[in-house]
Amino acid sequence: REVAKALALKLLPSEQARLAQARPVNAEAHEAYLRGWFHWMKATPADLDLAEKYFDLALEKDPAYAPAHAGRAWVWMCRGQFGLVPPEEARPKAEPAALKAIELDKELAVAHEVLAGIRTYSDWDWDGAGASWRRAIELNPNAATAQALYAHFLEIIGYGDEAVPHSERSIELDPFNPLFHGWYAYVQYMQRHYEKAIAAAKKALSFQTDFPIATCVLWLAMREMGGMEKESFEFAKSYARVVYDDTRIGAALDEGYAGGGYPEAMKRAAEGLIARLPEAFCKPSDIAFFYAVARENGLALEWLEKGFECRDQELPYIGCYPCFDGLRPDPRFQGLLRKMRLPVDEKK
Length: 348
Description:
This protein is mainly α and 348 residues long.
C-alpha cells in the first residue's frame, strides 16, 4: 500500500480489498515455506521429503499459514504422480491440505492451483479442473506453475493448440527453473515436436543434472526420433535410477540391451518393475511405458487397464503421449479413453 502511494498509483477496489484482508506473516514460517517450495520444484523423491519437512516447519510456526498447507498438498500430489505412493494414499492427504489452504485464504492462487491438479490427475474431473486452473491464473497470472500445468491440462482434454503459449509463459516467468523447461519439453513431446522437446529437456538438465522429468521426456522423445536408441536407453536408465532407487531396474535394462537390444531392454525393465510390486508400489502406467516403447502393445494395454482400475495419476496423459500411438487402433484403448471422457478421435 505504501509503495502504491509513493508511486501515485490508484488501487482498484479489488486490490484495496485484498490488502485490507492481508494478515501478518510470520517471517520464520514464510522462510520455511520458501525453502519447501525450492525443494518441491527439484522434483526428486529426496527433495519431496525435504519439502514436506519445511512445509511442516512452516505450519509449526504458524498453523494458519495457507501457502504451507498448499505446499503439503503439492508434495502428496507429486508423490502420487511419480508413483512413490499409491493413489489411495496420495489423494486423501493432498485434497484436505488444499481445501484447508482455500478455507484460510480463498484468494490464494497456489491453493486453487493444487486443487486443480487434484481434479486433473486424481479425480479426472475435467470441468472442475478447468474451472480451478482458470481461477488460479485469474488470481495470479504470473504463477508459473499454474501456467505450465494449465498447458498440460489443455493437452489432456484435446486443446493442444492453446497449450504452447501457456507453457512458454511459464518459462518467461521463471527462466532458470528446470521444472518449467521440463514441463515445456513434455508439451513439445505431446505436440510431436521431438527436436524441440529434446532441446527443452536438455536445457532443464543444464540447471539440474538429476532432474527426473527431463530424463523421462528425453528417453521417450529420443525413442520417437529414430536413430537415437542408444541415447534414449541411457536416459531411461537415468530416469529409473532417480525415481526407483533400485539397482535391479538398471541391471535389467543393461542385461536386456546386451542380450536383445533396445526392445528387450525395455521389456526387461517392465518385468523388473512387476517383480518388485510385492515390496514397492509402482504406477501401472510406468510399466505400460516400458512395454509400449518396447512395442509390446498388448502388455502395455493390459497395464493401462490396471492403471484405470487404481486411478493412476499419470493416466490422463494416455490420449496425447506418442508412445501409446501404436495402441490407438485397439478398441480396448478407445474404450479406455471413453471411460475417462478423453478425446478419442485425435490422431497426431
